[in-house]
């Protein structure tokens, strides 16, 4: 048994924050951000994570041509759920009417979508479920410290979802390698976030991100490269068998370094970090949707995907695409209207950062 990807859908919130917008309150510039990261702009959400997940999911379900009651399982891959208890998959399940689905959240940071895809695929392969919805969506900008330019300029909000359906054909995620780089968890962390039960503290919440950019960069390239090689070995393929590469979108320099190590031509590599920034668990579903919309994923292609994130978690997977690259049906799902600019949405958090750093 295999688990074909039969539906896909995305949600990119409408408010846009450009690099020039960031330079109005941070000591940064469009030139620095673009040359160091490839990012031009990012979308800022005016709604919680589950609302973006609902929109992406409804598009994916329509695309697959199924009824939401056919879903046996919904996995929400995210680091930014609306709440921790109960999980946010349950919010999505109620919103989309997936009344027969079990649901849980997965948090492995930016790799949450890939980890979730692997879990759902293996459950379908094992025969315990037939149809699953796998979501990767983030509201990363809720977690940023808007006084720290080294991390504040990198992230954005959004994501998407895919529908998996059981099939006898060798399609979908054929093999994957999930990993974690030991002793790197402090490099990208949020020590003050949420309720730390070990200290019994709660905060009025404007968080501070610990972020060692260069160390993350090095470990990301190494970790993803190893995971890619392992995923290829597991599936009995080599890099020459890969038609299109869909990497995590954190920094175009990371993508290019990895592509070079894998000997991939950049023409066959998806890059959309310029448009969205790093949407953490949202980057791979956004990339898949944009690649399909642009006609870059063609029937029967063999894809490689790779991701890394806080933990540091890593992963890669080989995906065999089916015959269909267009939706069976479309959905009218959209977010509620947004009547604020990106800066207006973020203003309370920007003000809190100014107060914190005494500006
Ligand atoms: O999904 C996981 C998320 N994590 C990542 O994606 C992080 C991976 N790492 C990176 O993408 C890169 O390391 C960064 C983009 C974060 C930084 O690029 P870099 O080429 O490693 O720059 P750097 O940290 O070496 O900083 C160079 C200079 C420093 O100034 P000095 O010491 O040379 O005077 C920084 O203070 O750039 C300065 N700088 C900035 N300048 C303008 C750092 N951030 C900024 C900024 N604007 N936003």
What report would you give on this structure?
- Helices cover 33% and strands 23% of the residues.
- With 359 residues, the chain is of the alpha/beta class.
- It has one domain (2-188, 209-327): Peroxisomal Thiolase, Chain A, domain 1.
- The chain has a five-stranded mixed beta sheet with strand order 1-7-6-4-5, sandwiched between helices. The protein has a four-stranded mixed beta sheet with strand order 8-13-12-11. It has a two-stranded antiparallel sheet with strand order 2-3.
- The radius of gyration is 19 Å and the shape is globular.
- It starts with a strand and ends with a helix.
In short:
The chain is α/β, with parallel strands linked by helices and 359 residues long. It has one domain (2-188, 209-327): 3-Layer(aba) Sandwich (Peroxisomal Thiolase, Chain A, domain 1), CATH 3.40.47.
The secondary structure category is: alpha/beta
Order of strands across the main sheet: 1-7-6-4-5
**Spatial shape:** globular
Written as H for each helix and E for each strand, in order along the chain, the element string is EEHHEHEHEHEHEEEEHEHHHEEH
CATH architecture: 3-Layer(aba) Sandwich
Q: Tell me about the largest β-sheet.
A: 5 strands, mixed
Number of domains: 1
CA-CA gap between termini? 59 Å
Number of β-strand runs: 13
């Amino acid at each position: 048994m295999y688990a074909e990807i039969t539906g896909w859908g995305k949600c990119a919130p409408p408010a846009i924050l450009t690099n020039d917008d960031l330079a109005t309150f941070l000591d940064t510039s469009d030139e620095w951000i673009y040359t160091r990261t490839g990012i031009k702009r990012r979308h800022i959400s005016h709604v919680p994570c589950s609302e973006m997940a609902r929109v992406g999911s409804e598009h994916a379900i329509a695309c697959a041509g199924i009824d939401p009651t056919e879903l046996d399982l919904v996995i929400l891959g995210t680091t930014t759920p609306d709440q921790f208890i109960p999980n946010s998959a349950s919010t999505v399940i109620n919103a989309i009417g997936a009344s027969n689905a079990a649901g849980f959240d997965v948090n492995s940071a930016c790799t949450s979508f890939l980890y979730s895809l692997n879990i759902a695929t293996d459950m379908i392969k094992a025969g315990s479920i037939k149809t699953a919805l796998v979501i990767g969506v983030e509201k990363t900008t809720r977690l940023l410290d808007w006084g720290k330019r080294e991390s504040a300029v990198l992230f954005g909000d959004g994501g998407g979802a895919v529908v998996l359906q059981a099939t006898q054909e060798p399609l979908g995620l054929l093999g994957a390698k999930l990993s974690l780089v030991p002793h790197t968890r402090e490099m990208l962390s949020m020590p003050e976030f949420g309720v730390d039960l070990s200290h019994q503290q709660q905060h009025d919440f404007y968080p501070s991100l610990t972020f060692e950019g260069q160390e993350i960069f090095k470990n990301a390239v190494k970790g993803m490269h190893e995971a890619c090689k392992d995923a290829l070995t597991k599936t009995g393929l080599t890099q020459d068998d890969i038609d299109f590469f869909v990497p995590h979108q954190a920094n175009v320099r990371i993508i290019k370094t990895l592509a070079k190590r894998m000997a991939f031509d950049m023409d066959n590599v998806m890059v959309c970090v310029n448009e969205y920034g790093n949407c953490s668990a949202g980057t791979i579903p956004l990339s898949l949707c944009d690649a399909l919309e642009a006609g870059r994923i063609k029937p029967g292609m063999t894809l490689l995907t790779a991701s890394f994130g806080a933990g540091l978690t890593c992963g890669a997977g080989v995906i065999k695409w089916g015959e269909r690259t267009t939706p069976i049906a479309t959905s009218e799902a959209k977010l509620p209207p947004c009547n604020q600019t990106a800066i207006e949405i973020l203003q309370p958090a920007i003000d809190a950062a100014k107060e914190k750093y005494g500006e």
